[in-house]
Amino acid sequence: DLILFWHRRDLRISDNKGLATAREKSSQVVGIFCLDPNILEKDDVAPARVTYMIGCLQELQKQYQKIGSQLLILQGEPSQAIPKLAKALEAKAVVWNSDVEPYAQNRDRQVLEGLEAENIAVETCWDQLLHSPEEIRTKSGNEPYKVYTPYWRSWSQKPKEKPINTFPKNPTGLTEKQLKIAKENGIIDLPTAQDLGFVWENELILEPGEDAAKNRLEEFCDRALLEYDEQRNFPGNDGTSQLSAALKFGVIGIRTVWEKTVEAMENSRSDEARNNIKAWQQELAWREFYQQAMYHFPELEKGPYRDPFKDFPWRNNEDHFHAWCEGKTGYPIVDAAMRQLNEIGWMHNRCRMIVANFLTKDLMINWQWGEKYFMQKLIDGDLSANNGGWQWSASSGMDPKPLRIFNPTTQTQKYDPEGEYIRQWVPELSSLDTEDLVTGKISSKDREACDYPEPIVDHKQQQKQFKSLYQDQKQAS
Ligand code: FAD
């Protein structure tokens, strides 16, 4: 009895709940992946992200081959392509892991209807989170959480599952005859990112595939985890895991990641080390917090959550927006960060907060422009985390702090005190004095000599204006 397992955000074999469920039900289990034009043809797709994803699919195909089965590639509307293939192969069931995104949920409903119409069973699991969105609710009102800190308290107290042994025994794959049928029913060779129209010439910050993600996790746990809380805010240091793309595509199991942190906790002798590990665990919980928020409040995807931002009179100056995108605002820390994003498809978290704050509070540009630009560039671009980060930075989200304003100069002095990060990404400024770099007090003469722009706005003035606009909106709403 053939079972098809539909991979989506779980591009791996080990520690995979849905895949383990499929294997429990049958010895013949075959993977499928559908290249979905509704996702790939949107205008917010990053070449780095597609390149990483295709690389992960290549690796996954190799893994399937090794265990004697296959990963089949489909292309087209999933609600048509998947039932068609399942029917042609006379599959008993199709299994997949659930997702929180509104599009995914709607798509999955349609695929389910298509399969049920053909009398093919469907089974789904929650795999990408340590706790599914329904699992964590307030004790008082049985409501989903809107605030992170109480969410974390409740989330961290729940017992966590251990990594799952997906295949205690390897499955079998398609027979020659079935393979022929599959080919007649939509199966294609895995295309390259270029075939799909995406060109990424730079190196990826994380090699595709499960092995590379596991190695990165090991290396991070040995190297930076024990200093995480002290180092994570300095973008010039290599203090974070850079595992975000692997977590976005489920290239590594979340239970596997968690177990590593528990082991590290058990092996550490000092409170200090334990606090550092806990700080990283809290980041993993932020990931889950934003995913459950998207699941319970899908309206977040569409726009601001809080009233004062519903009709906010954004300035939306296009020249300013382009200067921000290109890293030419005349604010070194902002420009360094945007150039890092453009060049490597990833940006340090501290800098994501700085540039998002600058776009919204200093340039007074609608945060949704920035949200989209990030999606067009990020290797780890993810609706829940990105929307959550942008709404947090714009102060339009569920975060209880009313207005958060960052001063780019203070941020630089605190987090890039030697100007290392700025020198790396804005090389034309590299010969300037550190003091000038980090205070941003670069003379017009120096700016001209370095071919570096004057600041496009004045932070103090803009901040005042923003606050007054915000007060007006607050009173009106
Ligand atoms: P680490 O510090 O090693 O953290 C480990 C993991 O925890 C990350 O890989 C990520 O999966 C998760 N995580 C950490 N911080 C957050 C957070 N604040 N929110 C949600 N998850 C978190 N993260 C994305 O994965 N995709 C995005 O599209 C994204 N967009 C963002 C946009 C803005 C404006 C902001 C402020 C943050 C955004 N983040 C996003 C969150 C965070 O910046 C990245 O997850 C982090 O920088 C990734 O680097 P890392 O893997 O080295 O993180």
Strand line-up of the largest beta sheet: 3-2-1-4-5
**Which strand-content bin applies to the residues?**
5-15%
Rounded to the nearest angstrom, the distance between the terminal CA atoms is 59 Å
H/E element sequence:
EHEHHEHEHEHHHHHHHHHHHHHHHHH
Question: Biggest β-sheet, characterized?
Answer: 5 strands, parallel
Based on Cα principal axes, name the global outline.
globular
Text of the CATH class of the largest domain: Mainly Alpha
The CATH architecture assignment of the largest domain turns out to be: Orthogonal Bundle
What compounds sit in this structure? flavin-adenine dinucleotide
* DSSP strand count: 5
Structure, briefly:
The protein contains 22 helices and five strands. The protein has 477 residues and is mainly alpha-helical.
Please characterize this protein's 3D structure.
- This protein is mainly alpha-helical and 477 residues long.
- It folds into three domains: 1-127, 3-Layer(aba) Sandwich (Rossmann fold); 129-162 and 211-296, Alpha Horseshoe (Serine Threonine Protein Phosphatase 5, Tetratricopeptide repeat), CATH 1.25.40.80; 307-476, DNA Cyclobutane Dipyrimidine Photolyase, subunit A, domain 3 (Orthogonal Bundle), CATH 1.10.579.
- The chain has helices at 17-25, 37-40, 47-66, 78-88, 102-117, 148-157, 176-184, 210-223, 228-231, 244-248, 254-267, 271-296, 318-326, 332-344, 349-362, 367-377, 383-394, 408-415, 420-425, 434-439, 444-450, 459-476; strands at 2-6, 28-35, 71-75, 93-97, 121-125.
- It has a five-stranded parallel β-sheet, sandwiched between helices.
- Helix 4 (78-88) runs parallel beside helix 5 (102-117).
- The longest helix has 26 residues, at 271-296.
- It binds flavin-adenine dinucleotide.
- Flavin-adenine dinucleotide binds at residues 232, 240-244, 247-248, 283-284, 286-287, 290, 349, 352-353, 356, 374, 378, 380-382, 385-386, 388-390, 393.
